């Protein structure tokens, strides 16, 4: 068999993963003869959650040539500057993990070391005061970041809070206009090559048979192709990420629309609250070892600001990763590839990452095995780093008010996380890596936000007079507060940026970066 | 007053690693009242160094003004390394620090060139690069900062440096910043009984030198760490096939090439570095495969060279790498940390990145092992990746002589074999943590070594090859024309020396605040 270009791709699943993949392949490969077909079943449905995103999604949309105002109107999206975590370190605590850095390093020493000294001296309390997105979020303000790198108004990035089902619908329209063919139906049988086990075609309940060369499994948790057919295996992480169920419900939008997501720790899990234009997305993620479904629902309903406007959507999941995301001629993208907690909104991001890597390693008909090997190696590294960061949220806590928190507080962290924590706990040093999503500002936000305060700051900080440092930080704080106050209200910004003909206004190229535009 | 802070640091050694450390520490610790001593007899080296672009970043970090550095050391620029004879006799390509070219943002440039190659065309990867064209024409120029920002393929450069003048310059800077140099040697070490850390060094002039922290920057594997603090050595002799080096410094009346050269020779390889008026050549070889006399003749100009006066020979130290680079209150930097051949990535480059890593972790007087562990983890990764770069040369070079057959037989680590394999078969470069080379630099090196992928990026499928051919041809013409418009390297250097304003200011410091 001589290798040639792949001409037929079949995607199973019409959730966010399926339609993001379809839209990307049909756009990026528009110059080559490539048919993309997608099978989905209304009867099975989609998980339909996944509303908070990361700044990287803007990069994805831009590569697809999506116009931001149009996209925001169509998905009822709002802007997101970060996530507020409440009750995590202790009951009553709250901090924001922003899309931006804290202060600026001074003479080669990271800002948080100076802040730590002033904190020890009782002169500073909240490092969030040194982050523009935190200050803006606290006042419900938003504007696009400034392009002048010397301005404090350039020191952040932003993402969206959106209706995932509308986003999937939006991408479906975009995909279909670019030639993607959609089949409604349930896949009941998978035909494989008798020797190689490669997938050859999918048979639907009504007998239709759809053949292809490359199959993308976006069938959600069940992993119809990657697991039920190819048995790639699953590595469970419940001993690190203890939650296994969720209930989601939408509620009426009442009052202000904050430009951030909330994650409120409860006694057996946590709750999300994601404000969209037309409603609020709410959910309760919990551990079935520690609470009942009814109790979890009650906690969720009691917390709603407005009336519920949807039926509760109950979900079960197993945290972990598919051992091989790419096996033979099948690539798993989305929930079929594994699931980490929704805590830091990384679901859609990992979908995007897998798509980008699939394009990079796009195989020919000979399916060179090293494409899969390197794809799997790099995806695994990304996922494990995100995992460590999520586990930190559960373990950096003083809470002892429930069985759930006792378990979290005392669970054995992954070795890699233990090293990171030890380094910060003693010296305030954040472990560095080149690859990976969450970098120093994120780790600092969560460590300090959850009371993991270092024993020592960098000794060089002691060379400066306390009063001099204090005056300088006070000035910086004032500058950030003023800058934040100069921004428009989030609701006004939404109206302004989405007004007809606003496309060019502030619409900038973005980088694949959490903290800077 | 708090007494966690280091109050005194002693540096052992007076080579380039030691002075880089001294000047760097002195500047970065300027406001922290740390006493810095440097111990060792004045150095007597006459090597020329080829320093990678990261040197500019280092200079910025430690407050060295680029213009002053160039004037005071008489250094020249380098746009990259010229590789000669590596995969076949007569092969000639330039591995530039600048990107080889750029087409559209989502697809790596090498895929475009590879597309033509896969269609049977004879391509050379450095043919589209302004930097490579400028280098061949011995031209050089850097524009003002603003222009460079919008330039898709800016000229990225390192330096060709006279080691002795560089050391003297760094020593003067260090001296101005209060570093005290003692021309003595260390005879004994005294430990603190409670911690096992080093308390003081006894010197041959009878004095004892106390310090809170010690940098071993000597020219052999650190005896402080090995003998005094009990660190082991991972042997590396099997990874490095040369045991001798011959050098020759020659006057040069030709234009100064803005590149250094790495040339495969029959019994080893040679490196050539130039500054105005002088050319320095070193031949690294194995005494099993070639004799000193033949090496000397090669250096002096060929088999019928009239005279081999001036060639000096040294036996290279036994290669090896320390099992830990920081233990207790002592760090080894440069050759003291590991000897595995000053090959394509120099010891001086490693010294710079080691010092910056140490400054990043910056210990207090307790010297907690948590920091040392992290330092060792990162330094270990960095060393392993540099070894990959070196071994790549042995792996892929032609094997037309006994020396090169032996070199090709050196066992490569899995990390390198995997990298080569994946690149060849998928066109994508696996990239690890703590790499010194950028992905682009790796790719250019692999291609230069004849390792072309079997396939192109899938995004090029459907592009018209004629369009790509035309675009690339245009790029090659533009690169050559733009290079011709640059001044000669020597002219540029003369301007720099004469008129200060011609020196582009080193990019306006950092964006950092200052208390
Ligand atoms: C509680 C929770 C909260 C989350 N919050 C966030 C968040 O805030 N931010 C974020 O980025 N991500 C979040 N995620 C993750 C995010 O929801 C998912 O990554 C995203 O929705 C993608 O899902 P999917 O497309 O992989 O699967 P699904 O949405 O489950 O889609 C599966 C598709 O496969 C089809 N299908 C399955 N079997 C068959 C069959 N046999 N025949 C035909 N079709 C079939 C279904 O019809 C459906 O179309 C969250 C996830 C959960 C569980
Ligand atoms: C032999 C050789 C060939 C190279 N060839 C190329 C090439 O062809 N193309 C190319 O783009 N790059 C090349 N490099 C790499 C280049 O010199 C730099 O190491 C690299 O660009 C630095 O990357 P960075 O600043 O983005 O990030 P990092 O390496 O992560 O460094 C971050 C910062 O740390 C500092 N730093 C790190 N290491 C050092 C060091 N050794 N010295 C001083 N400061 C340091 C700098 O301030 C730097 O900005 C080569 C390096 C060597 C040694």
Structure commentary:
The complex is a heterodimer of chains A (517) and B (515). Chain A is built from 14 helices and 21 strands. Chain A has a seven-stranded mixed beta sheet. The longest helix of chain A has 27 residues, at 369-395. Chain A has helices at 16-28, 56-63, 68-75, 111-120, 132-138, 164-177, 293-303, 347-360, 369-395, 403-410, 415-427, 440-449, 466-485, 490-498, and strands spanning 8-12, 35-40, 78-80, 82-86, 94-98, 159-161, 181-184, 187-192, 199-204, 209-211, 214-217, 234-236, 245-251, 261-266, 269-275, 280-286, 313-316, 320-322, 326-327, 330-332, 338-339. The model of chain A has no long low-confidence stretch (mean pLDDT 95). With 515 residues, chain B is an alpha+beta fold. Chain B has helices spanning 16-28, 54-61, 66-73, 109-118, 130-136, 145-149, 163-176, 223-228, 292-300, 347-361, 369-396, 402-408, 414-426, 439-448, 465-484, 489-498, and strands spanning 8-12, 35-39, 48-51, 76-78, 80-84, 92-96, 158-162, 180-182, 186-191, 198-203, 208-210, 213-216, 233-235, 244-251, 260-265, 268-275, 278-285, 312-315, 320-322, 326-327, 330-332, 338-339. In chain B, the strands form five sheets. A seven-stranded mixed beta sheet of chain B has the order 6-5-15-16-17-14-18, sandwiched between helices. A six-stranded mixed beta sheet of chain B has the order 8-2-1-12-21-20. In chain B, strands 3-7-4 form a three-stranded antiparallel beta sheet. In chain B, a hairpin with a 2-residue loop joins strand 15 and strand 16 (268-275). The interface between A and B is large, with 51 and 46 residues. One flavin-adenine dinucleotide (FAD) is lined by residues 12-18, 39-41, 44-47, 49-53, 164, 186-187, 218-220, 222, 224, 246, 283, 285, 315, 317, 334-336, 342, 345, 347-348, 351 of chain A.
Quaternary state of this entry equals heterodimer
User: Under the CATH scheme, which architecture of the domain at 8-76 and 163-235 and 319-378 in chain A would be assigned?
Assistant: 3-Layer(bba) Sandwich
Instruction: Tell me the helix content of chain B.
Output: 25-40%
User: What's the CATH class of the domain at 8-76 and 163-235 and 319-378 in chain A, please?
Assistant: Alpha Beta
Shape of chain A: globular
Which two chains touch over the largest interface? A-B, 51 and 46 residues
Number of beta-strand segments of chain B: 22
Largest sheet report of chain A: 7 strands, mixed
Mean model confidence by pLDDT of chain B: 90
